[in-house]
Amino acid sequence: MVAVVLAQGMALQALAQDVATTPQPTPKEIRETLNRAREMLDEGKPSKASEILAKAAKQLEQLAALPRPPSGARALADRCESLKDDLELEGIDVTGITIPSVKTSATKAVAPPVAVGATGSVPNRKGAKPQGVSFTGQVAPMLVKHCGGCHIAGKKGEFQMVSYEGLMRSGMVQSGNGISSRLVDVIQTGDMPRGGGKVAPDELATLIRWIDMGATFDGPDPTVRMNAIGPVVVPGAAIPPVALAKPVPLKPGDISFALDIAPVLLKQCVGCHHTDTTGGGLGMVSLESLQRGGASGATFVAGKGADSLLIKKLKGVGIQGQRMPRGKSPLSETVIAMVEKWIDQGAKLDILTPQAALETVAATGRAKHLSHEELAEQRFSAGALMWKRALADEKATIVTRGSVCVVGNLSQSRSDEIATAAEASMATVQKVIRGDVRPIVKGGVVLFVFAKPYDYSNFWQTIRGQERPKGLTAHAGVLGDVAYGALTLPIASEGVDAAADLALVTAEQMTAAAFMAAGATEWFASGAGRTVAIKVAAKAPLAQAWRQEVPNALAGLSSPAEFLAGNAGPVATATMSGAFVGSLAASGAKLRMLLDQLDAGTPFEAAFSDVFRGTPLALFEAWAAKEARKPVRRT
């Protein structure tokens, strides 16, 4: 008996020694494990994501067993639960994955926030500790000081907080719970900042208190760049305003922004001066952002190339800081001279609008110099690469029929059927918006077709950079060289004409892509798409559903300006614009007139007013008022 007791004691001692010597996972390691799991789920590999989540849960279990779990462990448990829920929605059996509960210490009560003055300072009684924390006066300068180089001017680790709004959208701040916020956790564990100096204890305490008190914003605009709030960057108000350029025809010898300048900026500058990774507060994603300038002031002054900051930076003369492009060889004298000449000639924009993405402007410039067949070959190849970028693990079946290329993860036979149907729809669309043998859009259209809704969600998230809006099953767009429509297949059920619905949706997206490629706004292109699609397949069940949705969409609209600004959401926008444009262009003749004007280089607003004899705002207000007077149909 004594021997048995001794043996048990030795076994327990050995077990305790093993536990003591087993390295504990750190919160950082668990976060990285969860990041890998989320990546697998986003890439359409839920089974693999489940395996990785199980590993993260085991790691977290070791932390939860500690007498005092490290800060941030509770937030990690919440992330595990969220990922587990998402996997369950994908049909994965996750009953075997147990997420441990994590003990949290009681937080001290905090005083209610006090009003913050207009200057951003916090009222404070002499000799008393401050009861409120100012984001603009205290938190933003601290974040700029310690985090600005990597997460404000850059996007290291795929995390960026350009503004207050961006910080809150990132999920790094758990409002009302500072100690569980990931931003606090990475600072407390020493994971951050890297290269920005250590955050002092009193600074961290201020950050935690600000979050505990609701993480409120006390400035005039939550979207303003955070480094414009801090002391290290000249406020945007100090930058002299510049007039935005409008498209103008070029004269012989003029430098083309689309063909000559935009490609240089894309290759040499946008990598550092992208909207998400603005260096020096300067974005170069469009002519508008280039003109607006950054922390150092206006980038250029039309007509004064040699005096413009852009040229000085490219030449490396008369500047503070480094010559541009940073980390690359200097541009050749020939290229710099071309950019300087473009500014001297007035910095003219020759196509599209100042707001158009440089990638789209450059692609449009190239398209003008290619034949339909040359552009189609380039566009269809780019479409295949675009699919690979969004859905790398989903092998694409590609079928080309004339001026339409279908790219999707369907069987070969089904892809052939869709391509044949799309080609027939395109022929009808061509009659409506062209009236002759010209293609609806030079270079044709790529149709992305998805077997499952979550494939479409992954595509939307990659291409558009946000979650797919609820209820959205199709959209059109232009990205670089690709004019495209993207759609999930209409659901086939008893009594529903799925073939008619397919003809309707393919016609809708190809028409919308054609108008967007020509320079129409997204709301008008969407409306033209639905208007033409109903002409192609008027008896399709989905067409009737579109009509019935109009009253509800209008009822949810706060103002016509919201609709025209694109703030109504893509589903509601398509519903309203389809009915609105349909009322303006019942015959199709006016759509042909508008498209011809856009092809000739007329800006959309001018072409719209000329064809429809009124501004979009005035005509939309009149149409909406008329719709409101219609009697409600009872079903």
General description of the model:
With 635 residues, this protein is mainly α. The chain has four domains: 23-101; 135-233, no CATH class; 257-364, no CATH class; 370-629, Neutral Protease, domain 2 (Orthogonal Bundle), CATH 1.10.390. The chain has helices at 2-21, 27-42, 46-64, 73-89, 135-151, 164-169, 182-188, 201-212, 226-229, 257-268, 287-292, 309-315, 333-344, 358-367, 372-390, 412-433, 453-464, 498-518, 522-536, 541-555, 560-564, 570-584, 589-599, 604-612, 616-629, and strands at residues 273-274, 277-278, 397-401, 404-408, 445-450, 474-479, 482-488. The strands form two sheets. The chain has a five-stranded mixed β-sheet. Helix 10 crosses helix 14 (358-367). It is globular. The protein starts with a helix and ends in a 6-residue tail after the last helix.
Write a brief structural summary:
With 635 residues, this protein is mainly alpha-helical. It has 25 helices and seven strands.
What keywords describe this structure?
two-stranded antiparallel ribbon, five-stranded mixed sheet, 25 helices, single chain, disordered N terminus, 635 residues, 7 strands
What topology emerges from the helices and strands here?
Elements: H1 2-21, H2 27-42, H3 46-64, H4 73-89, H5 135-151, H6 164-169, H7 182-188, H8 201-212, H9 226-229, H10 257-268, E1 273-274, E2 277-278, H11 287-292, H12 309-315, H13 333-344, H14 358-367, H15 372-390, E3 397-401, E4 404-408, H16 412-433, E5 445-450, H17 453-464, E6 474-479, E7 482-488, H18 498-518, H19 522-536, H20 541-555, H21 560-564, H22 570-584, H23 589-599, H24 604-612, H25 616-629
Parallel strand pairs: 4-5, 5-7
Antiparallel strand pairs: 1-2, 3-4, 6-7
Helix pairs in contact: 2-3, 2-4, 3-4, 5-8, 10-13, 10-14, 16-18, 16-19, 18-19, 19-22, 20-22, 23-24
